[in-house]
């Protein structure tokens, strides 16, 4: 039986371990994908240190691959385009469709996405940091346009789909909006990319280090505010007010996860403005930050939180990266690693050296 | 092997035929439902005369039943409530989750709902006009509250869920809206019920015959306009204007399917009003009605069409019928038939004698 | 020259002083109103103790009056109904229409509403706690329906219009929503009233003292939670979860202004729920409460703040109180005072003895 | 007394007549504007032939001018920027703020905009086709950014603000939407410009003559369909389907006013798509077109009509033209005329020779 390699999370805080797995046979409706690229996401890094994350697990949920074997009956992608072995695809697990969250159109409570399934049971290969990934029958599949590079395709599923989901929830970015993006990591870059694509008049990115802000300007940021320079939240709020004629931005998109970012956003945003809270994923522990909700009332604000995305957001971000965005977003992929050096990829992410670090499992 | 009876559409325009089918074994995830009630819907009547409707088919998609056998692994309903044999349920097929329509949150293009599946293949029993109905693995299930009568439960899935979907699409009925409902059939009654429940100031129902308008007033209509009396569309528009202080209603809900109804609605609705078009299901054939779209532009109108519903609309209509609606909506079920007289049920619908005619397959 | 009396805020923290003013002549477009009722609002009480509130000032912005003199050219109300002397009216100042806030459809930054204008300049009479109130040319006027009591009319402009504005901003209360109202003062009662009118399945009011919760149940609350009994925020969150099948309410409406209310609301509301923040009007001072914004992100929440209302909300609340709401909301007016005892009215509000205390300036 | 010239509509169908008027004194709050440019709009052309249009009237409602005299108390524009004589401005009349339409946030029923007021009463100068235009006290004013050409500024108020209002009403153009624009006149060009600015994946413009489609491609159209070539509506629908992979566009924006355009749009747009109806301004007379509303229901469409705009749309289109739009939209101004040849400007518009014809009243 043919085998392949994959990187497995086996112990909290320990390096991922390269293990060998049998390449599974493909049942009707299933699909075997040969992996091209998988990005290291902050969630992967977080999980690697989390005692509550089940293990063993093959991480990697931002993935680009090639159809290696198509199970019987899998003939078309979500857009109705014919599929064949050798096609590059983006894929997701299909939601259960019968839980409460599915019923209200939110993230399924039952089905886990690839990259979040333990590898102890066959077919084992359920995450992107492996040479192959096996998709259960009836997966959601989108063929990557032939005109599109793998790098661009990957950027569609890094940050961008979640941000697009969020932008939809705040009622869209309107033509000529001034937008502040808090955070200069991959999610912040997605927010910047989309705000510019949606016709924002001005996008101000707040973050660090300087190299990331430099990249932000390359992909369209009109202004950047370096938090290594503006260390006090009050200074940052003042700088944003100054850059927006004293009124504050129409939209703030929080992508930093920072402890003070939420309060800063409330203070920056203009009266009747919108505040999208994307980055606040982690519990603040025993000392949550002090917040003044009266700003929400007095400024008649609109706030939305968002996690993950719905399938149509992926369709849109792929098209957006393929045809709409003119900036060189592929430059955001700063580091590339073979599967054997998957732990190097994680390290480059943890040190903030990399903006986006990817693993090329079959390189 | 035990058998049961069901009414089958075998020939265009002919009476449904009572046939005998084996009662299927229940596979893991599947559910066998013993039918309590199934309503005759205009769609069933339409299909019975349609050469393009596949056959043989057991009609009946507005259904209330009792769980007869629960397949292995089916433990909870959509709200997380435990399920057991003997529980009354409302059910739907689960959407595929991977077609374009599923991806954008619209009606699945792939999976058919029960009542629209041919009966030539096992397990045969796929529509409400039979003693049993078999649900494929992983169906969508909602337990009917114990405090709720079958009649009330059935009303939740007659017209109401589609109307609720539509009301959501037009951005809701606002407190104190004046609403015109065009049409006094079951869908119109659903629109009336929900407009009142949502806090409409005044609901005007336009329809016929007089007996239906009488029923409309019993379940809350503030005014009715009898089209047997106001025969000319111009008269109906004038009457609505008179009843609304010359301004026209805030919302019009078209539930009649009538040839002139769309144009009447455009003429009635106030400037910046909303127009929900529910009833225009059928092609108008070679002579579509003349329409003046400039009213849409000049009156800055908002229009939405709607078909069917999403699962959460069913959850809501059941709760609404159980606790919110105080009017005696169960009176809308005017005619009841045993399975052996299913054709009588269809006839009572076709002659407009019945508001809602139901079949009690195990009575 | 004829004179009349009004209660004037002259010194911080001191009782309002009854002063005598000339009854002004009415210029073209202006209107002289003879006051029927003016309610004491929490804002009035707050301003009476505020060193930053300009003075002298006649408070009173929740007003019902009678047209005493109609200036030349004032012929119709906002609905186009003819106006004459003797008509009861609700009124507002007309926004400037050319500031930024007016341009985006928010509260005018330039024109103050009656009850917030100093009384040192003629025509002096600009607040509700006086026998007459003078409206500048081109006021916004709504004739009170003849079928409607003054009490019901007054309730339309207490809490309700602001809450309606807020409900619109969160995208409406949907049929069968479960709603938690935090706070059992007049704003909370407005939220309760509207949630019931809009077809909520269940409304849970959290507040105190017991007498207010008793009133809440009389006007439709399905459940109440007494904060004198459930003293710890965790207990209140747990009780709400219990009452909502573990899932949490679809909607939370914060009307309490309490220091911990915002965080409690975040913890109560269900995944993908809505949170309207009405009561957080005051700065929390040097010690703002600790808040966990990750709940906004993880629960994909929608939040909106709201202050005041737009004119169409008043049109709607008047209709709602006149025809839609069946509960005895007039019972919320628990205390009535002559103008000479205006300070008694304030006291009954400050002690929480009164739910709504009104002054009858010409009684 | 100093005088100036203006072009007056004096008789139906006759050439505009150049007349001389006194230059008015400026009262407190008023503003005298010296006109730079005024565009000929289809509405002006329509009104010139309309027996119901009041006269005498100075047309011209798409205007750019310079502040000649500032009345006492006019100190800032809508954004709070200081104003002085010599500043270039865009202006509108201020809505009444107290009619029903103002109360619901729609176009004022009372106050007419400049270009639609008869010139028989002082100060006479109320339209753009004159050397001066007098603004009544408290006008709405927006200073044109110094970095912006008159041509770009004018394009902000031609088509674009109305289209932006409409796009807002359909819930925005989403990133990567495919958009069909019906009509290749100035409004269609506005729709094209904004769809591209908002991140549309592909914009298809349907119109004629070929020279206009050439211009459309220059300012960003991805595809054009020439109705001189595709003469049958069925051909146009088929071509759009072909260009959109058989599915139809996500959004259709009707800007043509054509008799069959509405039905074509219904046929083109995809399931659950959006249809903005901007161009259907004129009554279709005794023979309105046949329309099939069942497409609205079956395709679960969303439609909105729109006329004119709200002030904030102008703020946005000016910013958009100044900073967001990179295409050479100023090329759309194809013809320029002195005031003495105002009738030549109208002729160039009527023959479709000009895309946008402007009059330079002081050239």
Number of separate helices of chain A: 10
Mean pLDDT of chain A: 96
Major beta-sheet overview of chain A: 7 strands, mixed
Going by helix content, strand content and strand pairing, the class of chain A is alpha/beta
Tell how many strands the DSSP assignment of chain A holds.
15
Report the oligomer: homotetramer
Indicate the overall shape of chain A.
globular
* Rg of chain A: 21 Å
Describe the fold and architecture:
Four copies of one chain form a homotetramer. Chain A is an alpha/beta fold. Chain A has helices at residues 42-48, 100-103, 150-169, 186-197, 210-218, 233-243, 261-268, 294-298, 311-324, 342-350; strands spanning 3-8, 17-22, 31-39, 63-70, 88-92, 132-135, 140-143, 178-182, 202-207, 223-226, 251-254, 274-277, 302-305, 333-338, 356-360. Chain A contains ten helices and 15 strands. In chain A, helix 4 (186-197) links the parallel strand 8 (178-182) and strand 9. The first copy, chain A, is globular and about 65 Å long. Chains in contact: A-B, A-C, A-D, B-C, B-D, C-D. At the A-B interface, helix 2 and helix 9 of A face helix 2 and helix 9 of B. Strand 13 of chain A pairs antiparallel with strand 13 (302-305) of chain C, so a sheet runs across the interface.
């Amino acid at each position: 039986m043919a085998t392949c390699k994959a990187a497995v999370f086996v112990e909290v805080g320990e390096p991922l371990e390269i293990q060998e797995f049998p390449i599974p046979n493909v049942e009707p409706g299933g699909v075997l994908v040969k992996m091209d690229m998988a990005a290291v996401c902050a969630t992967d890094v977080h999980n690697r240190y989390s005692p509550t994350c089940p293990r063993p697990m093959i991480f990697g949920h931002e993935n680009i691959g090639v159809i290696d074997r198509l199970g019987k009956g899998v003939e078309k992608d979500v857009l109705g385009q014919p599929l064949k072995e050798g096609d590059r695809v983006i894929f997701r697990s299909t939601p259960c469709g019968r839980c409460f969250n599915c019923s209200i159109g939110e993230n399924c409570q039952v089905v886990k996405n690839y990259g979040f399934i333990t590898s102890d049971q066959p077919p084992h290969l359920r995450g992107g940091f492996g040479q192959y990934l096996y998709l259960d029958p009836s997966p959601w599949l989108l063929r990557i346009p032939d005109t599109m590079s793998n790098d661009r395709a990957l950027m569609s599923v890094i940050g961008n789909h979640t941000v697009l989901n969020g932008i939809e929830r705040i009622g869209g970015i309107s033509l000529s909006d001034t937008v502040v993006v808090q955070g200069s990591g991959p999610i912040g870059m997605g927010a910047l990319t989309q705000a510019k694509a949606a016709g924002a008049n001005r996008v101000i990115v707040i973050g660090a280090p300087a190299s990331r802000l430099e990249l932000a300007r390359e992909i369209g940021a009109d202004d950047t505010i370096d938090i290594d320079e503006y260390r006090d939240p009050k200074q940052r709020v003042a700088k944003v007010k100054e850059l927006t004629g004293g009124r504050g931005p129409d939209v703030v998109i929080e992508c930093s996860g920072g402890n003070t970012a939420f309060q800063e956003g409330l203070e920056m945003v203009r009266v009747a403005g919108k505040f999208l809270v994307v980055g606040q994923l982690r519990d603040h522990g025993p000392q949550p930050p002090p917040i003044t909700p009266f700003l929400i009332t007095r400024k008649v604000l609109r706030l939305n939180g968002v996690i993950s995305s719905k399938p149509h957001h992926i369709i849109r971000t792929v098209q957006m990266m393929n045809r709409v965005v003119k900036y060189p977003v592929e430059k955001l992929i700063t580091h590339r690693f073979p599967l054997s050096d998957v732990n190097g990829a994680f390290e480059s992410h943890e040190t903030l050296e990399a903006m986006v670090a990817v693993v090329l499992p079959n390189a």
